[in-house]
Amino acid sequence: MPTPQEIGTQEPSRTGKYVPRGRIAKKWVAEGYALGLAEARAERHVAIAVEVTLRAVFTVLDVRGFEVSDAQRTQLTECRDPGQLDTWLGRAAAVDHVDEIFT
Q1: Which domain, by its residues, includes 51?
Q2: Which of 35, 62, 63, 88 is deepest in the core (most CB within 10 A)?
């Protein structure tokens, strides 16, 4: 993928892809490129937060001696909401039974 600086300096595409030529078109494509990068970074940050919090939940449960059922493990690992995982992490530190995390 070309960098924003390279956009418009390439020869016209023979594959049918749009190659901007004008100043405004180049600006819009560069802005779209930057926005796409920012969105990808934000999505990656959320994915990392989910993974770290999920590991923390399992670590707390393990240290406290709880056994996690397959159904509970599935419910935890399928969650992609960092806020929900934070809630479950707090509960994991305080509950008497694993089931109480999800209530």
Answers
A1: 43-102
A2: 88
Residue 88 has φ and ψ, to the nearest 5°, of -65, -35
77 vs 55: CA distance, rounded Å: 10
Over residues 39-88, the pLDDT tens digits come to 888 888 889 999 999 999 999 999 999 999 999 999 999 999 999 999 99
The whole-angstrom separation of Cα 23 and Cα 78 is: 45
> Considering the entire predicted model, what is its pTM?
0.65
The answer to whether residue 71 sits within a structural domain is yes
CA distance 36 to 30: 10
Other CB atoms within 10 Å distance of the CB of residue 101: 23
